[in-house]
Amino acid sequence: MSLCSIYFSFLVLACAAFASSQLTGPSQTLSASPAAFTYNNDSFLLKGEPYTIIGGQMDPQRIPYQYWRDRLSKARAMGLNTIFSYIFWNNLEPNQGAWMSEDPQNEVAEYFKIAQEEGLYVVLRPGPYICGEHEWGGFPAWLSEIPGMEVRTNNTPFLEETKKYIANLANKSHLAELQVSRGGPILMVQVENEYGSFGENHNYTAALRDIIRESFDIPLYTNDGGVDWTLEGGHIPHVLAAVDGGSWALPARDLYITDPTELGPLLDGEYYTWAPDQWGSHNPHNTTVGNADSVSSIVSDIDYHLGNYSASISFYMVHGGTNFGFQNGAMWQNRTTVFTTSYDYGAPLDETGRTTDLYFKMREAILPYVPDGSVPDPPTNLPRATVPQFELCPSTSLFETATSRRNAASPLTMEALGQSYGFTLYEHTVVSTIEGPLAVGDRPRDRVLIYVNDRIQGVMDSQYQHPLTVSVSLQAGDKLQLLVENLGRVDYYSRGNPYRNYLQDPWKGVKGDISIDGSILSGWNMYPLQLDSVPVQGCSNTSAGNKSLSDLPRFFHGSFIGPSTSHNSSMTLDTFITVPNGIKGNVWVNKFHLGRYWLVGPQQSLYLPGTVVKPDETNDVVILELEPWQMNSTSMVVYGSPERFWGNNPDPDCLKCI
Ligand SMILES: *[C@@H]1O[C@H](CO)[C@@H](O)[C@H](O)[C@H]1NC(C)=O
Ligand SMILES: *[C@@H]1O[C@H](CO)[C@@H](O)[C@H](O)[C@H]1NC(C)=O
Ligand SMILES: *[C@@H]1O[C@H](CO)[C@@H](O)[C@H](O)[C@H]1NC(C)=O
Ligand SMILES: *[C@@H]1O[C@H](CO)[C@@H](O)[C@H](O)[C@H]1NC(C)=O
Ligand SMILES: *[C@@H]1O[C@H](CO)[C@@H](O)[C@H](O)[C@H]1NC(C)=O
Ligand SMILES: *[C@@H]1O[C@H](CO)[C@@H](O)[C@H](O)[C@H]1NC(C)=O
Ligand SMILES: *[C@@H]1O[C@H](CO)[C@@H](O)[C@H](O)[C@H]1NC(C)=O
Ligand SMILES: *[C@@H]1O[C@H](CO)[C@@H](O)[C@H](O)[C@H]1NC(C)=O
Ligand SMILES: *[C@@H]1O[C@H](CO)[C@@H](O)[C@H](O)[C@H]1NC(C)=O
Ligand SMILES: CC(=O)N[C@H]1CO[C@H](CO)[C@@H](O)[C@@H]1O
Question: Which of 30, 161, 473, 631 could form a disulfide bond with 435, CB atoms 3.0-4.6 angstroms apart?
């Protein structure tokens, strides 16, 4: 999505002069089945008939694959005829050359086939940059290690990798054969994503257009914020220009796009149903719940787009889903701001795929624009499960699991260590007395827990503007340990704001030297802790029930007996996991990584999909608590509840931080 788009408020609502004259026809000359999907000056044409796209965004890789059909059928029942989907390259190719099309969660062709079975067409948004509040906007971390790499520009290494990615998507992931021109559901392909808010290198976007054309023969489109400079930066000859944003954005396309090969029917490619959440004591959950004015403005915008304007639309998001594991993105706004694990988005289908009040209000507004009887009945929500509270016992510390070691005189970044996500531990043994403020590379990337001989000294985190320094006092033989957490790479940068462009600087861990009072420390042991697997062995009897857990990040282990299913559906095992005594950490259930928790909120519980839960059997739970020294309780407990709550708490590590 474009956060830039929502910064422009309602600029123009009265757009009486929707001038659609002077347009020329579609730029595409379709070879295979020319009539399958095309457009003229005013309208998309599906098999020759005018077609208004009533779309909604839903990304397969953010939804447990077992629930794809459930979510798609519900989108259809809301009145949608088309699904818009981003593809996350970093999930499909986690290691260079390792294409994961066999992994069910990344089998995106299967998702599109289900969409077709459910009566939906598809608009494909492959990026390769997709923004989306997703880790590095969808780029795999290994890209950063390719010499000369510069993303989103006319850069040979970048275009070479992009070429392979698009070809793999088309061929290895079988999306080419799912084009509407070959009888599949895919109508159009987006080129780049809101590129105009990032840059204006038209050579790059033309090259990317040509790369996509090598694999796809259906119409292409661009999608940019509804203002002059974003449209001017983003348009590409022979590619249909679309806008995103609210109703205010609609007139912009024909005001600022003049090349007739870029004109055609009007599409609002991202109409925001609401907004994502970011961690922080002062960030309340973004939702329309209880906000009748917001809901009614969405409803009247639906009329305005589909009625007054006869425009096509895609609701971003119709269902957000979840940034499971370490998959969330972040932004840089002179400090790091981090998207939560939940991508609920305040969307009409909530994070667990249940319909909300907004769903029914939007459905009612959409129905007058679709032929009678063609929309299925709205679904009934299934109940979610309760898991009674149970206690976990303390297991090994994170540091004890750090066994894979590299050493070097100077620190290496996480990526140079061959690691994409999670934590890296940097360890140095001091040779002579030294004290003073610590500097960790060029800046904390992102959250650094500082220990001396296993005792916590402080937290440096680029989320905090204050305090930025921690001082230490060390004797010869002391062990300085820095645990660096990658909180998610920046996924969005706009040339319209005053911030640094961290899309081109994605590195995590430590970049640069580590010094104390200006003296560089040389000689580091480095331990990548990506946590693809976590220890599930039992607990250390010695520390179980012990009043004094050490300061070290620690795994906790426990289990619960899964509830029985009702309605013969794993959705009745869906629940919200809460770690009431936890400060900050991560949760795994049956080895499935739910994601991060952090007491600051606004997210206070994690979605546990019923697909992960074994009914009537033992289910393993592992928690990594990063800050046991901040816990008020010595016991770690977990429960699952059918309802979630959102809320904020002060940050014990930085009470005054914003
Ligand atoms: C689009 O409009 C222009 C100008 O009115 C006209 O010349 C052209 O034939 C139209 N194209 C199509 C495909 O209808
Ligand atoms: C994809 O596969 C087709 C058919 O096997 C082949 O002709 C084409 O060159 C491949 N495309 C790319 C981009 O590799
Ligand atoms: C785009 O390509 C043209 C022709 O090769 C060249 O003159 C121009 O400098 C390029 N522009 C950018 C921004 O790379
Ligand atoms: C949209 O159309 C309706 C019905 O024709 C009309 O009453 C309303 O004023 C129009 N809204 C705008 C903003 O033009
Ligand atoms: C961010 O930092 C830059 C460089 O220090 C400064 O010019 C700019 O005003 C800052 N912006 C905000 C919103 O603080
Ligand atoms: C503690 O040790 C006993 C005996 O070795 C073992 O049976 C028990 O499972 C252990 N408890 C935990 C919580 O690991
Ligand atoms: C647990 O408590 C005992 C007695 O108070 C203490 O000797 C021991 O070191 C503690 N163990 C841990 C792991 O903290
Ligand atoms: C439960 O669902 C499964 C898979 O959908 C189906 O095979 C099975 O027959 C169902 N059982 C009952 C009792 O409805
Ligand atoms: C711990 O307890 C103190 C005193 O009751 C309270 O002020 C603080 O907020 C609590 N901290 C957490 C993380 O719950
Ligand atoms: C991350 C995000 O988009 N947060 C938004 C939540 O809603 C408030 C109020 O509408 C916005 O100010 C935030 O930007």
Answer: 473
